Amino acid sequence: MKRLAFSMLTAVALSSWSINAPITKTTFVGESTTEPFLKTARAEPSAKFRSLPEDIMIRVKLIPQQAQRYDTEGDWQWHGDTLEIRLSKEVIEDDPRYGIVLLTHELVEAILCRSRGITDRQVDAFDMAFKGEGEPGDDPAAPYHSEHEAAQAAERALAVALNVDWRSYLGE
Ligand SMILES: [Zn+2]
Description:
Elements: H1 31-43, E1 57-63, E2 74-79, E3 82-88, H2 89-94, H3 96-115, H4 120-129, H5 145-161, H6 166-170
Parallel strand pairs: 1-3
Antiparallel strand pairs: 2-3
Helix pairs in contact: 1-5, 3-5
Bound molecules: zinc ion.
């Protein structure tokens, strides 16, 4: 789950997130910025690994921000062996690359949680009760904190590869 500060965005319908929208933000995020995230991710224990099902279906939906289950721009739920990821279309509308970066976060987080026996119910319960600032997953008390951190490392690496300015992406 990922919460961005996208309150300034206007809600205009988007037919597809793979359209050739103009790329306007090309600020390069240097490796020095990425490194602490990678270190954090590497430092986390990975003892509780469970194999994933042999046949996984991944469905990605773009929905209006208002249609999200709670205050988030990225959401995921497992339905059996089908993973449904719902991204706020306003994020993709702002920059199509953001959609790929955000999708990576959700995908990595969902797969890691699944492989470590953390259910979406546990994650949902924490996220929906969260009253603090920033992202629920940043809270060390989150049941999926280390999975969120690893997802953020992958997300950030992809942002670098796509020349996405990290702070603009976060809406800061
Ligand atoms: Zn997260």
